[in-house]
Specification:
three-stranded antiparallel β-sheet; alpha+beta; 36% strand
Length: 64
């Protein structure tokens, strides 16, 4: 169970040739945000970018 105040975030990676689409999903609300980056990028960098976009989307939607 996540700590109080922390969200559970799920990540989905789909490789498309030399690119990878990363979707970050807020488990509590189902809100999603996706980014596309080079498949050669470190996984942590791609996750961070997708997470930042998800945080932006959540703040705009005022969810949570």
């Amino acid at each position: 169970m996540p700590e109080s105040g922390k969200r559970e975030i799920l990540f989905e990676f789909v490789t498309l040739g030399t690119s990878v689409k990363v979707t970050a999903i807020d488990a509590a609300t189902g809100v999603e945000a996706s980014i596309v980056g080079p498949a050669s990028s470190p996984r942590a960098a791609l996750e961070f970018a997708a997470l930042q976009k998800l945080r932006y989307v959540l703040s705009k939607a005022k969810v949570g």
